[in-house]
Amino acid sequence: MAYKPQYYPGNTSVAKNRRKHMSDDVEKLRDISDEDLTAILGHRAPGSDYPSTHPPLTEMGEPDCPVREVVEPTPGAAAGDRVRYSQFADSMYNAPAVPYWRSYHAAINFRGVDPGTLSGRQVNEMRERDLEEYTKRQAETEITDWGLAGLRGCTVHGHSLRLQEDGTMFDMLDRRRLEGGVIVMDKDQVGVPIDRKVNLGKPISESEAAKRTTIYRVDNVPFRSDKEVVEHVQRVWELRTKYGFQPKA
Amino acid sequence: MVKTASVTDKPIQLRVFPYRMLQPQTAEKILNEIDQVKGVIRMLVSGKNLPRKVTCGPGTGADVNHPDRLIIHVGGCAFELHVIVGDIYVEVDDESAIEGVRTACERALPFPFELKRGHFIKRKPTLTDYGKYGFKSKIDESINLEDERMLGLTDPHAKLETNLCIVKSEENS
């Protein structure tokens, strides 16, 4: 019988969404062109070549190494791209993703990733062209709702604040805002103005956000209402405690 | 607004906590509504900073031009919002004004809010204030400040002119 990964326990909508994010079985909600994505990431000019930090691996003459023979390099590593980052902040008010689940999504479904998981933001470092592929996946799918999340390389403040009157998450640098019913972004992730207004699509409604979120909240789906998850978390903690216990002989 | 020094009476302090961060138009509306309530001594607007320029990261120095950093008019006095309004602290002179503040908030806010009573604004000078303003004289050790209602409304190191808006009462104007 073929192995089928079991990503996360639970029967609530939150648990199901968590499984979806981890398995990359996510719905695509919008289209963002490669040029627009490159512009909002701000690492290179849209349409320009990828700057490299070393020659392509095929030209470098790698040492004889069994591991290198087994592991196929990612396209970015093979081409010698620079390592670059993208960072998302997600609102605590029922944003579809949370930092942990962005990291799970990146680490399970992409290679050559270095996810950094913080309380209010999630940063991911990868080779540049791999990073663009990964960021595009997160930006176009239900993992990101641009009203409740933001691509923020710095000044990420906002995830734990009340939402603004228009239902979007506060952005101190005004990188993206609600204009005419859609979210537009006219600055890159560090707040430098770009030469275009990138349309990031319509934000999802409050009720839709409550259905798509991976956050347990007492005013939506409480954590304790999912018995299987509670049991699983308690079991993990119990085993961690027991394995850490080393009585002296 | 009445001109009663807050330190002489025992005024009541209230905190208005809207469930959303306020846009400048709503902030202007609610501040004007509260200003109309009889018995309001002073108000303090608190929220998240709206910087003029990017202060960290590779974009340091770039203009932000946040659309919410607008000039609003409260009680005939114009001032620029430096924050997105999150909380409003109101000091009133007696119990009868509390319901007035609640009604004003209900009129101005299209979403729920909390109104709590407590100690939110400084009521008497601290060491830092004495360091900034000094004593009135060698024999009078009260703080050398014409209007003690200004205490606690701004950071001791901030410039008063850009952070304080003095609304004249009708009898003084």
Describe this structure in words.
- The complex is a heterodimer of chains A (249) and B (173).
- Chain A has one domain: Lambda Exonuclease, Chain A.
- The radius of gyration of chain A is 20 Å and the shape is globular.
- Chain A has a four-stranded antiparallel β-sheet with strand order 2-3-1-4.
- Chain A has helices at 13-23, 34-41, 57-60, 66-70, 75-79, 99-109, 128-140, 206-212, 227-244, and strands at 83-90, 114-117, 121-127, 149-151, 176-179, 182-187, 193-199.
- Chain A contains nine helices and seven strands.
- In chain A, 33% of the residues lie in helices and 16% in strands.
- The model of chain A has no long low-confidence stretch (mean pLDDT 95).
- Chain B is an alpha+beta fold.
- Chain B folds into two domains: 1-121, Alpha-Beta Plaits; 124-157, no CATH class.
- Chain B is built from four helices and six strands, in the order E-H-E-E-E-E-H-E-H-H.
- In chain B, strands 2-5-1-6 form a four-stranded antiparallel β-sheet, covered by helices on one side.
- The termini of chain B are close together.
- At the A-B interface, loops of A face loops of B.
List the helices and strands and how they pair.
The complex is a heterodimer of chains A (249) and B (173).
Chain A: H1 13-23, H2 34-41, H3 57-60, H4 66-70, H5 75-79, E1 83-90, H6 99-109, E2 114-117, E3 121-127, H7 128-140, E4 149-151, E5 176-179, E6 182-187, E7 193-199, H8 206-212, H9 227-244
Antiparallel strand pairs in A: 1-3, 1-4, 2-3, 5-6, 6-7
Helix pairs in contact in A: 1-6
Chain B: E1 12-18, H1 24-36, E2 40-49, E3 71-74, E4 77-80, E5 83-92, H2 96-108, E6 113-118, H3 127-133, H4 160-163
Helix pairs in contact in B: 1-2
Name the descriptors.
heterodimer, A: 249 residues, alpha+beta, Lambda Exonuclease, Chain A, 4-stranded antiparallel sheet, 3-stranded antiparallel sheet, 9 helices, 33% helix, B: 173 residues, Alpha-Beta Plaits, 2 domains, two-stranded antiparallel ribbon, 4 helices, 6 strands, globular
